[in-house]
Amino acid sequence: MILGGMIFSTEMNHLFPTTSAVAVESLKNDVENLSLQATDLAEKRIDESANKIVNKTSNTLENGINNVENKITSEIYEVKESSQKIIHEKVSQFDPLEPIQNFLKSFE
């Protein structure tokens, strides 16, 4: 039976030599196409993942910078307000005649 199968196979190859070649080429093309599709899909997913990572990192950095900027702006405003208050208090307490009066009192 095995011998009959081998003889049949050999006869088929002699009768239809292009059939096996076409089948092999077709199979080869199918495998190549599947490989290209898998590669394209993998590249697309990698690109999408990289873009997501870049966008998340960019957004995180931008938010962090904005938070620091807002905090610094707020602290600068607080320092300005407290400085103006202190200067106003000191100026309002300043008596330009007091040093002269103290000087004159020292002679009494």
Mean pLDDT: 82
According to DSSP, the number of beta strands is 0
Q: Termini, distance in Å?
A: 144 Å
The count of helical stretches stands at 3
Largest sheet: none
Low-confidence stretches: none
Radius of gyration: 45 Å
Structural class: mainly alpha
- Share of β-strand residues: under 5%
- Can you write the helix and strand succession as a string? HHH
> How much helix is in the residues?
over 70%
Shape: rod-shaped
Describe the structure.
With about 110 residues, the chain is mostly helical. It contains 3 helices and no strands. It has helices at about 1-15, 15-95, 100-105. α1 crosses α2 (about 15-95).
Which SSEs are present, and which pair or pack?
Elements lengths: L1 H14 L1 H77 L4 H8 L3
